[in-house]
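Recall that a protein's primary structure is simply its ordered list of amino acids. Everything else, from secondary elements to tertiary packing, is in principle encoded there. The following example makes that idea concrete.
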Amino acid sequence: MKIKDPHLWSPESPYLYTVTTEIRDAVSNQLLDIIKNPLGLLWFRFDSKNGFFLNDKPYKLIGSSRHQDYKGMGNAVPKKFATRDVELIKEMGGNFLRVAHYPQDPAVLEACDRLGILASVEIPIVNEITESESFYNNCEDMQVEMIRQHFNHPSVIMWCYMNEVLLKPHYNDNKEKQKIYYANIARLAKRLDSITRKEDPFRYTMMAHHGDFIRYKEVGLIDIPMLVGWNLYSGWYGGDMSGFPAFLDQFHKAYPDKPMMVTEYGADADPRIRSNEPVRFDKSVEYATSFHQYYLDAMLRRPFVAAAMIWNLADFNSETREESMPHINNKGLLEWDRTPKDPYYYYKAMLQKTPFVKILGSSIRGAIAESATDISTQIIQVASNMEENNLMVNGKLFGNKKPNNGMVEWRIPLNNGINYIEIKARRKGEVLSDKKIIECSIAAYSLSASEDSFSQINILLGAKRSFINKDNELWQPDQVYRKGSWGHVEANRLS
């Protein structure tokens, strides 16, 4: 069968043909069975130096991973929620979904096909393996079943089979047994990679590693798949953000002919926690936003990084976590109920081609007066892809700025109480605006001299963060003691 002048499938134009397959009785021609499958016509390749190409055009794959659980429902969510998650990636300007760490509802890939979101799918071999032939056989069965079930989805461009499999190594107290364990992992990886290439010689194989470059190299896992993914968190779980581009360059120098991608990156973002001075592991939304800014910029500057996969699209249940939100991993761009956080809007500003502007930050803020005037200088951040951005606060114009890496920032004096914020933005004749009301609770410079009566003042002792609880009660950041005011006198402060 030949199709003349085919309409190619792409993120911009996800055109789907329909292939109808029928089984009919050879004698009576009676229809016995029928099935319809989507058909997207495309070709693609990965290049170790220049990343990903679709229909011979370069694309930087940018998107996220997804877990399906939803606040109040758990994992068994209706199909419309699966579809909505893919729509949220599309609305963000993304073009990729890592279906992690297991195949999910068929509605996910069906939505990817329709919306033009490229995808990877993987089987759940996570952190470690069991050394038994029954385990190996089950892994092979899962891989084959996954490929055969999803083979006809044009959105799928790679099959994956292990995630951070060396994260929890067995036999740390017995190095000889550990060598055997590592060898068994490598053998299983080779079996799965071989089976995958036989089942589907047209798509790529990929394995996602955590950031222990030396260990994966020594075990031999880097050499097995066609593509290598790295889950990297420099500046979150340890080190600082500069370790991220350094790792990318180190790997590319060591393996210049190996296509690579970043399969996980992100930082916790608790919407209740805010900071004008964000630091690593403070859980503030502001730190998470700066983290994503730094990481995305580093990847956009390196054409050899084929893909950027954010961890995660939305917050999800993680039972063993006992942090600011117990049992929740809150690295999501969206909250558990899919309410967008600031980093989601940052990506919209960076990835959307249509005009976009959004005032970020909490509508409730805590601060400490800088003097007897009850005024506090606050940071106003705006996510924007507009050329001109004019900020007005309480009727006063604070000037025009151009975005840097998708963001515009002002330091503005806010009054105690209600403040009216408006941004007016322009780009090539197009005009957009956004408004926000910020209620600022400013603690008096001198509590003893304050004319305002108060029943309480909540301070996060030793911290530079503010915290807002479910009842909108606000905890202020602490301050170093200033003469005539109040604060702590110790030199060391908690993050």
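The CA atoms of residues 347 and 360 lie 12 Å apart. Helices lie at 79-92, 106-115, 133-150, 175-199, 213-219, 243-254, 285-300, 342-351.
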